[in-house]
Amino acid sequence: MLRLYNTQTRHKETFTPLNNGQVKMYVCGPTVYNYFHLGNARPFITYDTLRRFLEFSGYHVSYVQNFTDIDDKMINRANSEEITVQELADRFIREYFYDADRLNIKRATIHPRATETIDTIVDLVQTLMDKGYAYEADDGVYFDVSRFKPYGQLSHHRLEELESSDREMSFDASDKRSRMDFVLWKKKKEHEPFWPSPWGDGRPGWHIECSAMIIKHLGETIDIHGGGQDLVFPHHENEIAQSEAATGKPFVRYWLHNGFINIDQEKMSKSAGNFFTVRDLAEHHDYLVLRFFMLSSHYRMPINFSAELLQAAENGWKRIQTCLDHTAFVAAHAPLKPEGEGIEAAASLRNSIQTYRQAFVDAMNDDLNTADAIAAVFELVRTVNTAATVGGIDQETLKAATETLHQLLDVLGLTETKNEDDDGIPFDILELVSRRTEAKKQRDFARADTIRDEIQKRGFSVVDTPQGPKVSVQ
């Protein structure tokens, strides 16, 4: 039975979804103004692995991971390159998928963009205004934190302590009522993208974007919300406040947060300049080695990055691959039935398969303990390697061993990836097709037509069939 550490309660809890057999899960995605670094990759890999294990355990998972495609960093970079923010977002969403696909991160059920959710955002802000939780100031609309009494329930900060803490930002030129109040809608500034709203042209604040995308695509209460430890406060705390104030319902049942990746004991971040992009590291190490490296530690523990640890991960990954290759070769030449010494060895191997498979499942059920799960994989590898040296083990037993290894590695996302689908359609084209399908579901036919035109401009055509959209080279 799966137990997860809930940041809100600070305890491991037995996982029970709101609806039997169905899991609604949201993970904060990237702000798409640059390639993502190793620290960004950790939550992407962690929650992809959780999703895989939930599906392995028999759940149907509705998995949403967003793209933040409008914020100050994006505006500044787009202006510096003299391109539009959308052009910048389109470029780095493609780059995200290039790296994520090679890290074997499964595509989310939906990858919504903040800029495609403006209507829901405006409606949500209006609801907060109507209920008295938000107010309009000179430069935008703010959430009145003092009106939401449970504020601090996730981070366990007390509001009065936050208000008096020197660590919090000081007042700026706005006329917001408290330094703790956070922006829901920013009024238009020169050289910034904007959308219409009842409070004037402008753009959404960061926190409201995630709440709106969750409510739009998953509903008012979800099972799991994941992200990095640095998002607990203020981002996730603010998500709770605005969502529960608007709906009057519990927002998230289980909050999960992964630990940092450190360089020389300091958190990896773009702002600190001490980061490695996944793209750069992939020039020296296979993408799956990077994934293996991440999963070799428990997701809540910090990882101190070093070249030595990455090399150790590569050696471990090669050991597993060598076992699979060697056992497949031995199985191809093994007898159909066990013979001689192979009779006892085959029986022992079959018992080991069940033992280490169960050890793997137990580890994953214990708050996604991938470190112990990988230890179980290595124990199975050791046993299989030993058995493969014994003559007379039958093909069926050896194949069962390799199939079990492949199955467990697939749960961890440690299986060979493909860069294109079987028809040779690039992933960025498939992503456009997916976005067109979603636009049609939302009855936004104008946007669907625009996306279709973009697909055609890139040399592909898409035709709707009873089985779904069919994309091909023009």
Distinctive features:
Four Helix Bundle (Hemerythrin (Met), subunit A), four-stranded antiparallel beta sheet, 474 residues, four-stranded parallel beta sheet, Rossmann fold, 15 strands, alpha/beta, single chain
Describe the protein.
The chain contains 15 helices and 15 strands. It has helices at 38-56, 72-81, 85-102, 118-130, 159-164, 206-217, 232-247, 278-281, 287-295, 307-332, 341-365, 370-388, 395-411, 427-441, 445-457, and strands at residues 3-6, 11-14, 22-27, 60-65, 134-136, 140-143, 182-187, 202-204, 222-228, 252-258, 261-263, 266-267, 303-305, 460-465, 468-473. The strands form five sheets. Strands 4-3-9-10 form a four-stranded parallel sheet. The termini are far apart. The model is unreliable at 166-171 (pLDDT under 50).
Question: Summarize this, please?
Answer:
The protein is an alpha/beta fold and 474 residues long.
Write the layout of secondary structure elements.
Layout: E1 3-6, E2 11-14, E3 22-27, H1 38-56, E4 60-65, H2 72-81, H3 85-102, H4 118-130, E5 134-136, E6 140-143, H5 159-164, E7 182-187, E8 202-204, H6 206-217, E9 222-228, H7 232-247, E10 252-258, E11 261-263, E12 266-267, H8 278-281, H9 287-295, E13 303-305, H10 307-332, H11 341-365, H12 370-388, H13 395-411, H14 427-441, H15 445-457, E14 460-465, E15 468-473
Parallel strand pairs: 3-4, 3-9, 9-10, 11-13
Antiparallel strand pairs: 1-2, 5-6, 6-7, 7-8, 11-12, 14-15
